[in-house]
Structures are given as structure tokens and as C-alpha cells.
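[SOLVED] Predicted holo structure with magnesium ion

Edit: marking solved, answer below. Original request kept for reference. I posted the sequence and ligand SMILES and asked for the 3D complex as C-alpha cells.
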Amino acid sequence: MSSPPLSLRVIGHNAGTSMDGLDLVHVHFTQESPDKPLKCELLRYGEIDMPKPLKRKVMHLIKTNTTSPEEISVVNVRLGEFFASAIKQFAQEQGFSLKDDVDIIAGQGQTIWHLPLPELFPGRDVSRAHLDMAEISTIAAETGITTMGNFRVSDFALGRQGCPLFAAFDSLWVNHPTKTRAVQNIGGIANFSVSAAGGDATKCFDFDTGPGNVFIDAAVRYFTNGEREYDKNGEMGAKGKVRQDVVDEWLQHPYFTHDIPKTTGRETFGDDTADKICEKMIKEGATPEDCVATITRITAQSLVEHYQRYAPKPLDEIYMGGGGSRNPNIVNYLREQLPNTYITTIDELGVPLGAKEALGFAFLGCEGFVGRPVMVPQHVESQREGVIGHIQPGDNHFKLRKNVVRFWGDWPEDNVKPTTKMEFSSRFAQ
Ligand SMILES: Nc1ncnc2c1ncn2[C@@H]1O[C@H](COP(=O)(O)OP(=O)(O)O)[C@@H](O)[C@H]1O
Ligand SMILES: [Mg+2]
């Protein structure tokens, strides 16, 4: 008797470094049999704002870097409660049922600490470490759905950096027979993944280029006393003059000169750093707009420099996503500096700008629950494969496990390999 096909409906979610909110997707994964391509259909997308008091609490924890067990436990549970309520709100607003239409919930939680490169913290007694929080037991208990998290920690434990963690998914999704493509995400931190031309999704890699919006957001908060959280459509930056000497000096920072693999977060690029740049520039006669323009250019120029250093040549296309892809001061600079590359946004490929990372986590949830390792990208410290993610069973777990066992049938364990072919479709396709 042949095995039944796989069918997993997953809510993927992502709360990035910006802490603006939770991005959510509802995705259907299907697969005829383990030797056939995985099919991924994006059904729904939504965003739920992070409540301001919770954002302040998490920011405080990260910014001060002096905490108590009480503070950590409270933040973990409160994040779990917020994620659960956001997931319920997403389902309600979009008219689907968690019980009948969702098998798995998957996401990272909120990154609290990411320290993959201790050598960038000389004089401090630190080692490699990573922590995400948003208690998955809370999410599973409140929604009834089997919930997965901690993908980054699992990858970290296998000897890599746990971030950006999307090279495999991006490459499965954008891989092209004749074009070398990059997927550029500008969240709080910016990163890009490259998928080489030729139809072989395994030829991929990704890394963080440095700050995306974190500095820009911090500068805007600094000048508006926290009234505004970001430079909407780059309006403030567009009115200022870039201090090129400040940009060039900043791009000598050890993170930028460090070779790949590399990833980063607020530990290296925090609000305090941005505040200091602003203070110094103002003292030297700059306007707030000049500061925002200059800080925005640090992001834009670091992207260009990293493309020049690491992207294969020619790089045919860049697909941009994340909130920073709405900032023309970044996008226009990129277009100007990389005139031979077609630069557009990911919605051209059927993925809304804020949906890509949540989609990536939905994929990791599918693979993790099915029990498949994820493709290991190039330029990483360890080639060790492994199934990643922690699982908190929900009310539906028995049925779910049974379906997965039936899908595998008598498939030999030695032949359980990472997915290298995926067919993507989207209800958002243009
Ligand atoms: N219209 C816009 N103009 C400029 N920047 C924007 C716009 N919309 C969002 N952003 C920026 O994007 C950030 C959120 O991006 P997001 O991709 O959600 O990042 P993260 O993954 O870190 O949460 C905001 O903090 C803001 O800086
Ligand atoms: Mg966000």
C-alpha cells in the first residue's frame, strides 16, 4: 500500500530585532511522497503590533544587559501570551479556524541575546551564546496547537550561528536556472542570501551585513523623544545631508571588516551607539535630518560594500523585503551603486514585504516536525546536518504525528535528506 501524501498547515511567525510587531503567515505544505518536491502555498499574511509596554520591557532587558531571573521569566511568559493572542487575532481577523485549519505554529520568539562572535567583545569573559524567548508551552496551551520554537538555538548547537537561518528557504524559493539572485532583508538588522544560477538550490549562503533599521529607528526616537519610532518613507533622512566622513569612519567597525560567516544584533548595534553618533554630530553642527541621513547611509553603504565583497558576479537580481525596503534612501542608493543588477521587492515573487521571515519559519516548522534536516548553506563553520527546532505538543499532536509516520511509510532512515526542491505558490502572486 502506498503512503498518503503529506499535508501540513502551518502558521509561521517572526518578531525581528525592530520589535515593531509580529509578522504572521498561514501556509500549506504538501508533498506527494518523500522523493517528490515539497509544495509550499502562501495562503495568508498579517501583522500584529507589539504592545508598547511589552516592547519597552524587552528593550530594557536588552539595553541594560543587567537583569534578574524574575525579569527574564516574566518577559518569557508575557511574550508567549502576546504571541498566543496575536495568533488568535490573526485567525479571527482573516476568517479561519485554528482548530480546523492549522496543524503547527512555528517561529523563533523574540531574540533576546545573540552572541556568535565573542572575538568582537574583547576584554569581556563571554562565549558563543544565543537566547530567544516567547514560551512555546504558553502558545500551545492557549491555542491548542502543536507549537515549535528555538530553531536558532538548535542551529547554534550544531556549530553555526543560528542566524539569519533563511538561506535554504530563500534558495528553494528564488533559485533560477540562469540568474543569480539575492534576497535582501532589511529588518532591524540587514542580511542577504545568495542563490547561485543553475537550478541547484544547495549553492546558497547568507549572512548579516550589519544594522538595517535599528540605528535609524534609534535616531528618530532620539530626536522625537520617542514620539516617532521610525523614519517613515525616509522623509526625515531625505531632508538631511550625508556626512560621508562619519559613514566611512563607521564602516571601519570590526563587524564590517570581519569576514563571513557573520551575524549580529542589538548587542553590537544598539540604541546607545546610534545615540552617540547623533550626539557627536549635533555637537559638530549637524541637524537631526543630517544625522538620520548619515545613519541611513551607514546601512545602505554597508549593503553595497558587502555585495561587492561577497556576491557572485554578475549578480543578476536582488529581491528586497523587510520594513527597510520601504525606505527610498536605502533602495535608491543601492540602485545607483549597483546599476547592473535588477533591484525590486519580494512582492514581485508573490511574498508581501513583511512576510518572508515568517514564511521561512513556517518552512522550518514543517521540516522540523516531519523530521528532516535543513540544507546546510555554504560559508558556514560546520557542515553538520540536523533536525532543528523544539516541539511543544498541543491538543492535535497525536493525529499530527500519526500523519507524519504514515507519510514516511517504510522510507529508509538513511534516505531522510534535506529538501532541495520546492514548488512555491502564493495567493499574493501578481
Ligand atoms: N514606510 C516605511 N518607511 C521607512 N521605514 C519603514 C517603513 N515601514 C517600516 N519601516 C522600518 O522597518 C522596521 C520594521 O521592519 P521589519 O522587517 O519588521 O524588521 P524586524 O524583522 O527587525 O522586525 C521599522 O522599525 C522601520 O524602521
Ligand atoms: Mg518586525
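OP edit: Residues 69-94 form the longest helix (26 residues). Thanks to everyone who chimed in.
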